[in-house]
UniProtKB/TrEMBL annotation:
NCBIfam families: PRK07231.1 (NF005559). Pathway: Carbohydrate degradation; L-rhamnose degradation. Pfam families: adh_short_C2. This is L-rhamnose 1-dehydrogenase (NAD(P)(+)). One of its GO terms (biological process) is fatty acid biosynthetic process. Keywords: NADP, Oxidoreductase, Rhamnose metabolism. Residues 6-193 form the Ketoreductase domain. Belongs to the short-chain dehydrogenases/reductases (SDR) family. Its EC number is 1.1.1.378.
Amino acid sequence: MLLEGKVVLVTGASAGIGRAVAIGCAEHGADVALNFSRDQAGADGAVAAIEALGRRAVAIQGDVADPQTARDFIDRAVDALGRIDAFVNNAGICPFHAFLDMPVETFERTMRVNLHGAYFMVQAAANRMVEQGDGGSIIAMSSISALVGGEYQTHYTPTKAGLHSLMQSAAIALGRHNIRCNSLFPGTILTDINKDDLADENKRRSMEGRVPLGRLGQPEDLIGPTVFLASDLARYVTGASLLVDGGLYVNLQ
């Protein structure tokens, strides 16, 4: 129960990593507010799972690409749950596409969701934490893609590198307020984002063969690292990053 008595906010929490992390934080005692864009059924299911654990939960719809969504989410979450102790910026998209004919809208939409949306969400969460006056934890779900390239991810990888850079700078800007800012770098995690890309059995086996732990990641693999960074166990950890990739990054040579 590392998060008992805390309130955690998670964006993009109706499915995948966000859903797993939201429920995992509730398993450790937190009340949770979930942001979601379109999947009402998925959001409702996550809320039900959290409430079944005896914790409070609220799902708030909004497109993170719209800067107004950030303030709306933070305000409504705090109205419902009383405060904010940890904020997890997870919402993101990765519409795989070749570089030379990348549509402008695909590039710009990816930037608006993954990076611009994160900036305004983190800013709104930080402002509320500063008002509360007792610190907090901000966690960005970056990616191994912040460290390595991807042929069909030229629009995506810069956003994940930008998220990590944002956490480094925010750690400096917010340290005086006892607000910690850190990044998680998931490796290849089986989610809706990559299910089509990994539908090719040969490609999937090849990817698994590059992971020292011998398997691709599951969304639940991000729970422990997130709970740690959100908890008081990480009270002196800020501006840091943690790979959660089964060893993939160190085995890429």
